[in-house]
Amino acid sequence: MIIDCVSVVTTTWNERENIKKLIPAIRNVLQQVAHEIIVVDDSSQDGTIQAAKRLADVAVTKTREGQTKGLLYGMRLAKFPVIITIDADLENDPQHIPLLLQQAAVFDVVVASRTALPRISEIVASKTLGKLVGVTDTLSNFRAYRKETVSKLDLRGGETFGAEFLVIAKKKGLRIGEITYDPPPRRKRPRIGGTIKANSRIFWALIKSLMLYFL
Ligand SMILES: Nc1nc2c(ncn2[C@@H]2O[C@H](COP(=O)(O)OP(=O)(O)OP(=O)(O)O)[C@@H](O)[C@H]2O)c(=O)[nH]1
Ligand SMILES: [Mg+2]
Q: Which numbered atom of ligand 1 lies nearest the CA of 193?
């Protein structure tokens, strides 16, 4: 099966300059594929929504709830049967979208996993939850989903950086696939916080996701 139409969903929190580069880059890769680009902005203060309204097909603004809820919100708006989710901060190169789409023909969820995981918490997540769900990068939200799975993705864990989506997918018996890519260097000042804060948030998300897996 060849996938010839796709909805691309990204969430934003103060990503005005990045979104201006990301959206044309996505359109460039998808020249031969019917597509829509959906931006879910959580009331950024830097004018992201104005840029998104100009460039995207759908741009919505809402109160801040985090990336995980934003992704689900955007996926529910999607009109095509396959959805790509992608970070807006240029850490997920749209060049990998065609391979994700190829795999989405045979899997319900496909994760684009980074070949190098920079944080200790991400490595632990990979060796625990990752082993259970069968992907090396459980926190990558660069993924393809089949739209029909979205109704099954009922979130209970709050912000889990995408890990809960995989827990649900595994528990519902969905087919989970994976591609890998070499990530670019991280932005200098990580938005998620410094080393201790970021690792703590990810460890907490991991604990919640493991609990949801075993409950
Ligand atoms: N809608 C929405 N999007 C968010 C929120 N927090 C982060 N994002 C977006 O989610 C994507 C990933 O967030 P990042 O802050 O880059 O998280 P990360 O990649 O784990 O951390 P970094 O190392 O800082 O890049 C980006 O597109 C952000 O703009 C939020 O509260 N709401
Ligand atoms: Mg990032």
A: 24
Q: Counting ligands in written order, which one lies closest to the CA of residue 141?
A: 1
Domain range summary for the chain, segments of one domain joined by +: 5-214
Reported pTM: 0.96
Ligand 1 atom closest to the CA of 65, numbered from 1: 31
pLDDT at 188: 65
CB-proximal residues (5 Å) to ion ligand 2: 89, 91
- For the segment 205-214, what is each residue's pLDDT rounded down to a tens digit? 999 999 999 9
Atom of ligand 1 nearest to the CA of 41: 1
Tell me the C-alpha distance between 171 and 162, whole Å: 15
151-204 pLDDT, tens digit each: 999 999 999 999 999 999 999 999 999 999 999 887 666 667 778 999 999 999
| Residues 6 or more apart whose Cβ sits within 8 Å of residue 16 | 44, 46, 47, 48, 50, 51
Closest ligand to residue 194's CA? 1
Q: Which ligand has an atom closest to residue 12 CA?
A: 1
Architecture category of domain 5-214 in CATH: Alpha-Beta Complex (3.90)
The residue whose CA is least distant from atom 15 of ligand 1 is 191
Distances (CA, A) of 148 to 25, 136, 143, 188: 27, 24, 15, 37
